[in-house]
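Narrative of activities, Objective 1.

The group set out to show that a structural description can be obtained from nothing but a protein's sequence at a throughput compatible with the screening campaign. Below is one input-output pair from the validation batch, recorded exactly as produced.
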Amino acid sequence: MDRKIQFLDLNIISTDHGTCWRYNQRTNKPVLPAISSHTKIIKNGIIFAALENACNKSCSHELRQGIKGQKLRLEKAGYRTILIKQVSQKLIRKLLFGKPEIDDEEKVKQKTAVINYDHGIGHRMLKVAEMFDVKVMFKFPHKLGRLPSSINRERSPCQEAKSTHTKYRECKKEVVYKIPMSCGKVYVGQTGKCVNERLTEHLRTKQQGKEEYKNMVNHTMECGCHPEPERTTLLGDSGRSKLGRELTEAFWIHKEQQNAISEPSVK
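Output recorded for this entry:
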């Protein structure tokens, strides 16, 4: 005889010793697959919520079976056992010790940094910031709501004056570029402007003496070589944020090793 009845998300069981209950979904709808493109934070939250509900919404007699049932659902969705164990350790700490309360004075002292979300890099920066009691919040510049206006916005034309915009190659903004030198060295940089405008600025550095271009100026004075802007190549696609361009720039400077005469914007 079946002595079970489903009520909302609880499976109520009648036994000879009384009534027990276990957390169990009404439907067989699977959880978010582990192979989805969602962030790691979201996936860990799904594991945490499933196990926490099993603990909070099951009686002591059915607690073990409730946790096993949720673990089975997560494994069917493709979540690895080691990941489920890692999240369950956080849940155990929360159930045993609770979430530490932060008083108002500590909230004021805690620093907050808002950065653009870059897949893979953002989570690493989040973990490093926690070591220094810095709260990191992500912002997403490329949202679906901004997609129509981003596609249909009017593109500002490049300057036509050769003194500020000599066309060495196809115009493109927000790029990482590499300028070959006649001696075999290369200069790697990034810019939010049109690449031709930045190349024109590089060739006017001796007259202007700008501090931001001192590496190329010093090298040409010591070596006697000259840049070759006509052979400039683009190393990064246009449209990336400033942080994304700076990280790409640092990567290519490191890859060029001793051949690069420029310094990365971020270290």
